[in-house]
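Support request, please re-run this one:
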Amino acid sequence: MRLLVTRPEPDAGETAAALVAMGHAVLLQPMLRVVFFDPPAALPDPAALIATSRNGVRALLAWPVAAGWKTRPLFVTGEGTARLAVEAGFTDVRSGGADAAALAAFFVSDFARGQGPILYVAARDRTGALAGGLATAGYDIRTVVAYAAETVRRLDRPVATALRTGGIDGILFFSRRTAEAFRDAVEADGLTGTLSGITGYALSERVAVPLRPLFARLQVADRPDFAGIAAMIGGVGPP
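Re-run finished. Output below.
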């Protein structure tokens, strides 16, 4: 199949490599560009860490002080984020669900209160579900805004051309924000009519919501990870 990947880099390139290995042709159109911020001058010594994306782990790795935190419990969403954390040397990685709300519930069930501050390595644009839920549950949650994902407003010319000429069979969406950014970009470029013969592949129902007006054919993964996406397009990816 001829597939379009909308994830930000470096995840887009990693996903493309996996898809090519499965026999597909791939175009990249990252709909977000990730910008990392400098760490605060003073950080608490955390009893546990939280990252809800691979970019949260990447931000954490850029902080010199975090080199001494590799044995602290690190709570994450998603198997891909967990895998990156383990590869980076964290020895106590605990994966709890596909979104912030699920991770908050898992954290409460798995980590006792009163052990010290909990450091949440967060995106600038986020819901308050995780930090708010943990604060309400009695945890000393400290949020550090570590990175931002800036929206891409227009499609790259080769991608727009491929859409106009029928050069894409399927488009992969891994987050709600990339789905929303893609919807806005195709509307701005007058390309919504080019999607009628294309299948959209969404990581979850939440990701699918902004895509439903665009795609006549939209599939939602049974599990919210690359393997779930790969199963829909007829391949087997990494777990």
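The chain is about 35% helix and 20% strand. Residues 163 and 194 are 6 Å apart (CA to CA).
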